[in-house]
Amino acid sequence: MNKACxxxxxxxxxxxxxxxxxxxxxVSFSSxxxxxxxxxxxLARHLISPTESCSCSASGVSASITSSDVGSxxxxxxxxxxxxxxxxxxxYNKDSSPVKLNLGVGAYRTEEGKPLVLNxxxxxxxxxxxxxxxxxxxxxxxxxxxxxKLSAKLIFGVDSPCIRDNRVTTVQCLxxxxxxxxxxxxxxxxxxxxxxYIPVPTWGNHPKVFTLAGLSVKSYRYYDPIxxxxxxxxxxxxxxxxxxxxxxxxxxxxxNPTGVDPSIQQxxxxxxxxxxxxxxxxxDSAYQGFxxxxxxxxxxxxxxxxxxxxxxxxxxSFAKNMGLYGERxxxxxxxxxxxxxxxxVESQLKLVIRPMYxxxxxxxxxxxxxxxxxxxxxDEWTIELKAMADRIISMRHQLFNALRDRDTPGDWxxxxxxxxxxxxxxxxxxxxxxxxxxxxxxxTADGRISMAGLSSSTVxxxxxxxxAAVTHVA
Length: 474
Ligand SMILES: Cc1ncc(COP(=O)(O)O)c(C=O)c1O
Hints:
- The chain has three domains: 1-81, no CATH class; 86-117 and 391-472, Aspartate Aminotransferase, domain 1, CATH 3.90.1150; 138-373, Type I PLP-dependent aspartate aminotransferase-like (Major domain) (Aspartate Aminotransferase, domain 2, 3-Layer(aba) Sandwich), CATH 3.40.640.
- It has 18 helices and 13 strands.
- It has helices spanning 3-6, 8-16, 35-47, 86-94, 119-130, 145-156, 161-164, 175-190, 205-212, 232-240, 264-276, 300-307, 339-357, 363-373, 375-405, 414-417, 429-439, 459-472, and strands at 101-102, 168-174, 195-200, 216-221, 223-224, 229-230, 247-251, 280-285, 312-317, 329-335, 422-424, 441-442, 448-450.
- The strands form four sheets. A seven-stranded mixed beta sheet has the order 2-10-9-8-7-3-4, sandwiched between helices.
- Strand 7, helix 11 and strand 8 (280-285) form a beta-alpha-beta unit.
- The longest helix has 31 residues, at 375-405.
- The chain binds pyridoxal-5'-phosphate.
- Residues 106, 175-177, 203, 251, 256, 284, 286, 317, 319, 325, 330 line the site of pyridoxal-5'-phosphate (PLP).
């Protein structure tokens, strides 16, 4: 029988590792386990979650061996379920309806529903192509030096004390995901506390990235479904009971999937609490500029934590704000107390990166560096970025108005209150599947819709679908 499906891996793992428990996300390890033991256990649990029975049918895992499989050394490999977010696009692509609408994907679309390459990116690329002196040599392990310096300035501010004092190390990584993973791997190896707290809900990849990096994932309350706003009391209570030194993952702005951010006053209280308890903040900054249209404003939360002189970690992505999704451009910054520590941290980051992918790709980072170094291109970028943010905000208003015009039952004001690319609609899983079945509208099962995937011409179709879902499906 299929080894994974027989439960051999998980059963042995679980029985051998008595200290492993199934807390939130089923992830918790003794601190005595080595990183590779922890990773192996985590991997086994990803292959078989305790709720997956031998037939594995509930999760779409199929282990049946067909005649064509016989003889393959891989015939025991079980079919894994689609990624819950990227799987939405897979389902959308299979739908032949002319009215189909994909609101699952977290990528910007124009009013015409098309992917957008920013003009400023095209200009920067043209400059790169025209420069005959450019070669395709390997980058250093930590990436393009100028990109790293400019990325740090972008998130921390040009006059940031951590840059002035040379106590931040920034390394180019594979977009936001790669930056989170490298940061997680570094913490597993070199930080005394292996517990990371992530908000509920959060981007679906967070628990997987950190678990496989060797950290133990726990959660803190973040979203209140009743108010459709921040559960600030729950957040404070949960972080207050976190063990000293625990890592706390914070979305720098435009929280995904809820679109709910703390106010500046709440950020200040969070900062005070994190510092007083000696917790380690790890920011995920995937939407700088997308929330408000202003790069500095969207970096405010991060800058508050740097201004107090304490340490923090930041994973930056240029996927959304420069539209460089597939170029995989991002950066990991670790702000330390001294330049000496920052230098040592960087030397260890190289040891994390080298055996993982050796060094990062050159093209995307060169585009970013070309834009950030040049005042004219930078200004053009901010204008295009603001236009994207404004279009998203306009879609929020159009959808809200369309539901109001239809007298759709319920309070929909959260659509205009939430921030960034996504609206967490509050639609339940049955209503979501009704909308997909009857209206060919695709979104994640938690009712998250990408406002960037909507346009003036598709708003009424979405509003009709939401109206029908809430009036016909409980
Ligand atoms: C909160 C959050 N973090 C990180 C990422 C990673 O994106 P990428 O790896 O494409 O930069 C995303 C992408 O959707 C995200 O929403």
